């Protein structure tokens, strides 16, 4: 809550007041009852329009803003109960942040910028330069260590910011619209870079964006915010195929479904049988939608979806051609949610 008498505003919210009534009293409810859990090794994306509360929510996760009510729990600690000194320790060693506008020091070299977080921790110079060099290599900037920030493109500067976060080996990365200031092609390249790094490092990441296509591409789980509240949390497929309300549905109407959906999203699971033995082309539950369409074009019957169950290949569903066509339009299937947690890192839980 921002403004006068924030604690009173919390009580009013609990009694049923809305944001507009609070604003008339001089209080802004930036985040309201936003409760969620980020699993270890997961990319958790928070998305919404400007003013939805997503950046405020992110700043509560590392203690830059203290919740008016509620708790933020990380690695067994309640961050809202830590002293300023303890909170600084958590920020310097366990939580790193990648900013939207790079936040590089113009008077420091690329290597010195990447090593800055380690310098704050008091790491000896030789070790911090070694770790920063390794982080820059991971971020695709090997050979640029002695360059200055103004000699780099926007995308390269953002890579330095990412390398700075990686160098500290923090358990949690917070990324506040980190790619939104970049040109579309560079932004796509940075998304590829983040996905590649995540496959190697298995970090826990909370990523803020207002771009739904970016959220769909990066997020293991996505939380959609509106007017300070989380209106839906789920996988990209859940949100695309089973929107919680008209607001989420309108958000997703322009998304390229073929890049998000898989066979599991559109298949009919009301089937019986073992592995299809006709020798016809089959799919697995994880087969991308585009590939599924190509298989469907080669056969005159529904595509069989075959997975390995208890060591045996079994028929788990079929995809009729009509269902493929309907999935690209307004017709919605009945998907089974896909859950793909990634190992490693720490668990984050928040209730604000």
UniProtKB/TrEMBL annotation:
The family database entries (InterPro entries) matched by this protein are listed as:
AAA+_ATPase, ABC_osmolyte_uptake_ATP-bind, ABC_transporter-like_ATP-bd, ABC_transporter-like_CS, Gly-betaine_transp_ATP-bd, P-loop_NTPase
Q: Is Transmembrane included in the keywords of this UniProt record? A: no
Output one GO BP term: response to osmotic stress
The keyword Nucleotide-binding appears for this protein:
yes
Q: Which GO terms describe its molecular function?
A: ATP binding; ATP hydrolysis activity
Keywords attached to this Swiss-Prot or TrEMBL record, sorted alphabetically, are: ATP-binding, CBS domain, Nucleotide-binding, Transport
Task: Report the domain of life of the source organism.
Answer: Bacteria
Return any one Pfam family short name: ABC_tran
Q: Where is the ABC transporter domain?
A: 4-252
Any one of the GO CC terms = membrane
Region (Disordered) spans which residues? 326-352
Q: Kindly give the NCBIfam families that the UniProt entry links to this protein.
A: proV
Family assignment?
Answer: Belongs to the ABC transporter superfamily.
> What is the name attached to this protein's record?
Glycine/betaine ABC transporter ATP-binding protein
State the organism named in the record.
Answer: Streptomyces minutiscleroticus
